[in-house]
Amino acid sequence: MKKIWISMLLALVLILGACSGDKEDAATSGSVDDGEAQNENGAIDHGVDENNIGFGLTDDTIEEAQNIPPAEKEEIMQMFETYIDAFNDKDIERFSNLLSENTESFDKEEERVYMEKNFKEFDFERTASNVTIVKYSEKEAQVFSDLETSMKQLSTGLETDSTGRQVTLLTKEDGQWKVASVHYIGDNK
Predict the structure, then answer these.
(1) Bridge pairing between strands 122-136 and 140-153
(2) Partners of 147 in the β-ladder
(3) What's the rounded Cα separation, in Å, for the pair 132 and 55?
(4) What is the DSSP letter of 19?
(5) How do beta strands 140-153 and 159-173 pair?
């Protein structure tokens, strides 16, 4: 009889021990991410720490950087306008040429393929307002903008409109400003 009680007690201890595992494991158990490493890079921020951005995307006050040489400011603003125009015109060559070769945020060729697909499937109209250079150095500029985007799926005619705020991180490569990453947050409606 003693052996039965000891066996039952031992089984109970093992069952309770197995049930009292780490709560974090229980929270993710049964999820689509089981067995996969957590992705540390977000879809919007590409894993960039917001502390390295000139301000938080949810700030209400947008202030222009004070140390921008006038010629650089004009070049940066022109580049940003070309970036928006290339997107709206679905000009994949011009759009791709504006992307940085030296970024950890995206693979330039993968981005090109992705945008070619989107340009074939959708009509876009992106309008930027409140365009402001919020952080500047000789090698990097951060351009804030409020964005309104209208999108129409060509196959279905479905149309959507969205608004949000974006910081476009530009880097200077071979004397030209290039898009190194994009940080976007949509407005809640």
Answers:
(1) antiparallel
(2) 128, 164
(3) 12
(4) H
(5) antiparallel
Distance, CA of 57 to CA of 142 (rounded, Å) = 12
Domain assignment of residue 10, yes or no: no
Q: What's the CATH number where 149 sits?
A: 3.10.450.50
59-89 b/e (C-beta count within 10 Å ≥ 16 → b): eeeeeeeeebeeebeebbbebbebbbebbbe
Report how far residue 147's alpha carbon sits from residue 128's, in angstroms, rounded to the nearest whole number: 5
CA atoms of 1 and 5, how far apart (whole Å): 6
Q: What per-residue confidence (pLDDT) applies to 4?
A: 38
Q: Which range (40-44, 135-139, 176-180) has the least confidence?
A: 40-44
Q: Which amino acid is at 80?
A: F
> Structural domain of residue 122, as residue ranges?
67-186
Q: Which residues, including other chains, have CB under 8 Å from residue 113's CB and lie 6 or more apart?
A: none
- Domain membership flag for residue 42: no
